[in-house]
Amino acid sequence: MVVGAFPMAKLLYLGIRQVSKPLANRIKEAARRSEFFKTYICLPPAQLYHWVEMRTKMRIMGFRGTVIKPQDEEAAAELGAELLGEATIFVVGGGCLVLEYWRHQAHQRHKEEEQRAAWDAMQDEVGRLALALEALQAQMREVRAQLCAQDPPSAAQEASAAQAVSTSKLQESAQV
Prior knowledge:
The protein is mainly α.
């Protein structure tokens, strides 16, 4: 069935990421309208971004030591709002990625615990079967010792004793 192949958690994460885009657009609009937001939240990262970008371009072109003028306030506010919106989408996407990773790790731990429990159960079963085998071998030695202590058996008696031992083994293994 298709529903089982598409986990609901992934659908939820996809929905959260889609909701984060309009949220980022609202944050951008608020950043453009609010002076406090514009001055203290948007402008510093935008000016830093502009400075790093221009310095890198100047170095690539071979100009060293040139003074980089700050970007005008309107362009910096616009750039800061864009950076903030992209950062919001990035943080939401990264959060979804981290949550998916944690969910996957929990699933893996649960799976490993189940495998470990199954392995322990198999080892217990092997130990129990080894003890049953030792008990059967001891019983077989006793029967042989009793048969050897009696008169030398004929071939028919040996076959009858071997059949009795194998029958008792089957009965005991069926009881186990």
